[in-house]
Design goal:
Elements lengths: L2 H6 L26 H21 L2 H9 L13 E8 L5 H8 L12 E9 L6 E9 L21 E8 L6 H26 L1 H13 L18 E6 L1 H4 L4 H18 L1 E5 L5 H16 L16 E2 L6 H4 L5 E2 L2 E2 L20 H12 L21 H31 L5
Parallel strand pairs: 1-3, 1-4, 4-5, 5-6
Antiparallel strand pairs: 2-3, 6-7, 8-9
């Protein structure tokens, strides 16, 4: 059969894309065997052979864990993954998602927690990988909402992206420290829950994160790796590239250390620089669709940083400069013994990097939402507020009426209230 004729043959309608875009499959049992039945049988046999081949090759599985990019995208099964994007306010989170999904839309401010999705056709074009994409707006103020996307049902194929605004270094440390700690606590809790139901899946998640560093990595015993894939993206590099070289060096080396310490990828992004857009798309595509990933790293602070988890080292990052009172020495003339503060001698490397960063870039305090946002004066709406007040009064009258009825019933029945 010629390829032209073959391409014109339409398969039976086995799936559809509904209005929600979920693409719910419809399966039926064919009454007679046709060419499509034979194709399905051949696919199932190939899948079975592939599974047996992988299961019997222990070293191959070990290599896939050590180097995630080794696994080719030749699976005959659809991949369903979740990507959770968080970060500072106005840090281009929506722009990253739109560029990743190749959508030509104007970014809009994100309200609380928003959801979208993307699909990617497999090699045979009959299966599609699905990426569930969640975005948290509001900076760190609404970080308690991470419980919605980070669950034990999706943690096996979950990746978290943390965006920091390189053009505003006065927000970087506050954002990173708060989100990393919150995500770490949530991830450990979810994996502990998963371990009670399915220990093998929980152990596999942790093993894959640790395997990026390998058993022979010199820093493996000095890190605090978060047990889910984390990617830190420094946004607005087009503005950051014009910073003072010494400030750029401090920011880049601090981000490298924080990423390395927590087992995270690190890359820089700008929606105005197509080369960085393509690099970021490739990294996110690897996280959610398991595509091939370029392992060429870039650590020069004068250029856009791109370092994958497990491919950096403390010896390459260098030690932080000692803090001298309220100032710090430069990175080039650092001496571990040069310090006028005895407290700094007992700081961990992470704390030393933190003190260096805070002494160079004092952090702005992020506004905290009130316990009851409806009472926030900046949201005043006279008409809505008057209606709300009226409804509150009606509710109070209804409560008092119900309490009176309950007391009367209790008296009639001889009960005491």
């Amino acid at each position: 059969m010629s390829k032209r004729v073959y391409d014109q043959i339409q398969p039976p309608d086995m799936s559809f894309d509904d209005e929600d875009g979920k693409g719910t499959p419809i399966k039926s049992i064919p009454q007679t065997k046709c060419i499509w039945d034979l194709c399905i049988q051949a696919t199932e046999r190939a899948e079975l052979n592939t599974t047996r081949e992988v299961d019997t090759k222990g070293p191959f599985l070990k290599a896939c864990l050590m180097f995630p990019g080794v696994l080719q995208e030749n699976s005959n099964k659809s991949v369903e993954s979740t990507m959770f994007v968080v970060g500072a306010k106005s840090a281009a989170k929506t722009s990253i998602i739109l560029r990743f999904l190749d959508r030509d839309e104007q970014p809009k401010p994100t309200t609380a927690l928003e959801y979208t999705f993307g699909r990617r056709s497999k090699n045979n074009n009959m299966l599609k990988d699905v990426a569930h994409v969640w975005e948290l707006g509001g900076g760190i103020a609404l970080s308690n909402l991470i419980e919605v996307p980070i669950t034990k049902q999706c943690v096996k194929n979950l990746s978290v992206v943390i965006c920091v605004d390189l053009s505003k270094p006065e927000t970087i440390w506050t954002t990173l420290e708060s989100l990393l700690n919150t995500i770490k606590l949530r991830a450990k809790k979810v994996i502990a829950e998963l371990k009670r139901d399915c220990p093998s899946d929980a152990n596999q998640i942790v093993a894959e994160c640790l395997a990026r560093y390998g058993s022979d990595h010199p820093d493996k015993d000095n890190l605090d790796i978060i047990p889910i894939p984390i990617t830190i993206i420094g946004t607005k590099y087009d503005e950051f590239q014009n910073f003072d070289p010494e400030k750029k060096k401090i920011i880049s080396k601090t981000l490298r250390y924080v990423a390395h310490h927590h087992g995270a990828h690190l890359c820089y992004f700008s929606s105005k620089m197509e080369a960085l857009v393509m690099k970021t798309r490739g990294l996110l595509g690897h996280l959610v669709f398991k595509t091939q990933l370029s392992k060429t790293i870039l650590t020069d602070h004068s250029k856009p940083i791109y370092v994958l988890a497990g491919m950096d080292a403390l010896s390459q990052i260098g030690a932080p400069p000692a803090i001298v009172g309220s100032r710090s020495t430069t990175l080039d003339n650092y001496n571990i013994n040069d310090s006028y503060s005895q407290d700094s001698l007992h700081w961990s490397p992470l704390e030393q990097w933190k003190q260096l960063f805070l002494s160079t870039f004092p952090q702005e305090a992020e506004a905290v939402l009130p316990d009851d946002p409806t009472k926030d004066t900046k949201y005043n709406e006279s008409i809505i507020d008057s209606v709300r007040s009226q409804k509150d009064e009606e509710l109070e009258r209804f409560k008092k009426l119900q309490e009176r009825k309950m007391r009367e019933e209790a008296r009639r029945e001889g009960r005491v209230m």
